[in-house]
Amino acid sequence: MSANLLELRDVTRVHGTGPVAVAALAGVSLRVRPGELLGVMGPSGSGKSTLLQLAGGLDEPTAGSVVVAGVDLGAQSRAGRAALRRQHIGYVFQDFNLIPALTAAENVALPRELDGVRGRQARSDALSALRAVGVDDLADRFPDELSGGQRQRVAIARALVGERRLLLADEPTGALDSHAGEAVLKLIRARCDAGAAGVLVTHEARHAAWADRIVFLRDGKVVDDTGAESLLEDAS
Ligand code: ADP
Ligand code: MG
């Protein structure tokens, strides 16, 4: 198996055809290894969310290939891709996307249950994932009984429950105040230090400074690929 948890090989995604065609992503290649957090920056419309959706198997490239844990997503059936996604990939969204009618533990257990894990085991997996992000004492609360920062922790637990080690986060601090935002980034960093591979989309330089490497996108292309240190210097 490849040592990369995620690899994009010359990936292009075109929306529409003819004169209205838009290349949301144009020939992007990148790799992320276990333990590594990759930052993705770029102006609005530069292709950041498209990149993440392709990496997560939620969208398909027009050309090129996406390889997750050594498996080419394009060579899988729709069902095979869904299974691979459930086993390996966790998604964290800007607005948490928790299901309001389910408790924190039930939200986190849901992907396990969808994967055929029995109820008792799914709950136990959910409690471990909640413990790992420091909110297991909130397991039986509903989303509207949690603060924004607590909700995002639950969303991260849901993204990592089970054996999933590829964490894809699209502006995960967007709905949080700066204190809660920092705490969430610290947590994502810690999960990567513990062996997950992460991709963090952000437009804030001080957030991207948590990443090991940063890819800058413009008009769907990588315009720069740099270490975080130089960016930190620029931001200070
Ligand atoms: P970002 O997340 O960096 O703001 P996106 O990946 O959302 O950028 O979008 C990149 C480009 O692709 C934009 O020009 C956007 O309008 C276009 N785009 C994204 N999704 C679609 C779609 N479903 N249909 C048509 N164009 C799209
Ligand atoms: Mg976006």
How would you describe the overall organization of this protein?
- With 236 residues, the chain is α/β, with parallel strands linked by helices.
- It has a domain of 165 residues: P-loop containing nucleotide triphosphate hydrolases (Rossmann fold), CATH 3.40.50.300.
- The strands form two sheets. It has a six-stranded mixed sheet with strand order 6-7-8-3-9-10, with helices on both faces. A four-stranded antiparallel sheet has the order 2-1-4-5, covered by helices on one side.
- A hairpin with a 2-residue loop joins β9 and β10.
- α5 packs parallel to α6.
- The longest helix has 16 residues.
- The chain is globular and about 50 Å long.
- Bound molecules: adenosine-5'-diphosphate and magnesium ion (MG).
Keywords:
six-stranded mixed β-sheet; 36% helix; globular; binds adenosine-5'-diphosphate; Rossmann fold; 8 helices; alpha/beta; 26% strand; four-stranded antiparallel β-sheet; 236 residues; binds magnesium ion
Bound ligands, each once? adenosine-5'-diphosphate, magnesium ion
Largest sheet: 6 strands, mixed
Radius of gyration: 17 Å
Considering the protein shown, what is the CATH homologous superfamily of the domain at 6-98 and 164-235? Answer: P-loop containing nucleotide triphosphate hydrolases
CATH architecture of the domain at 6-98 and 164-235: 3-Layer(aba) Sandwich
The name of the CATH topology of the domain at 6-98 and 164-235 is Rossmann fold
Total count of helical runs of at least 4 residues = 8
In terms of per-residue confidence, which ranges show pLDDT below 50 for 5 or more consecutive residues? none
Structural class: alpha/beta
Q: What order do the SSEs take from the amino end to the carboxyl end, as H and E?
A: EEEHEEHEHHHEHEHEEH
CATH class wording of the domain at 6-98 and 164-235:
Alpha Beta
Helix percentage range? 25-40%
